[in-house]
Design brief:
Length: 201
């Protein structure tokens, strides 16, 4: 049987008292008069577990583990020639094909941000004459140095500071001023380089 209005009001009042124990009768009647009922719900906030970031090796640990050292038996120019071929294809894809009408400044801009592992470079100018003429494949690039393997199977560590490197691919020759290039490969990809007419060593 359908309930009368008084019974319905009594039921609602009793229900609200149970649902909102913190409110008195006057407050409940006020809520009913406004015909807007918001039931109180006190839920316990769940604490989110803190995510722990995986810790990598420190620079000291990497040195102790010799992670970046190339074993003497692996220091052979012929081993890394396939890496150079892969690098050339990577640059061609990056520049959408190196055509005779390719703008040099466009190529230069791409090379400044490109990964140079596998590139063949030559030291063309240096404040230290002993570095001039060193040619080889870049095996490792760090913030301040290049590690280069020469055709004589010698691993050379060449600082970027005070050195100018030339890089040739498909007839295009580009120059890298090491003093302005002292960044890690991952940092170079996001850096904006300014083209200047002349740069000192």
């Amino acid at each position: 049987q359908p309930q009368g209005s008084e019974e319905a009001r009594a039921f609602v009042s009793a229900f609200l008292k149970r649902s909102m124990p913190r409110k008195n009768d006057e407050a409940i009647q006020d809520i009913l008069a406004r015909k807007a009922v918001v039931l109180e719900h006190y839920s316990q906030k769940k604490k989110k577990p803190k995510r722990r970031k995986p810790k990598g090796f420190t620079a000291k640990q990497r040195r102790e583990m010799r992670l970046f050292e190339i074993e003497p038996e692996q220091q052979r120019y012929s081993i890394f020639l396939p890496l150079h071929e892969l690098w050339k294809q990577y640059i061609r894809d990056l520049c959408h094909g190196l055509k005779p009408d390719t703008q040099p400044h466009m190529l230069q801009g791409k090379l400044l941000k490109a990964d140079l592992h596998g590139a063949i470079v030559t030291v063309t100018k240096s404040k230290c004459p002993s570095y001039v003429g060193i040619t080889g494949i870049i095996l490792q690039e760090f913030k301040h140095v290049f590690k280069i393997i020469t055709k004589e199977d010698k691993l050379k560590v060449v600082p970027k500071l005070n050195n100018v490197f030339s890089l040739e691919i498909d007839g295009f020759i580009s120059y890298i001023y090491g003093s302005k290039f002292q960044l890690r490969a991952s940092e170079r990809s996001a850096k904006k380089f300014k083209l200047k007419g002349s740069i000192d060593l």
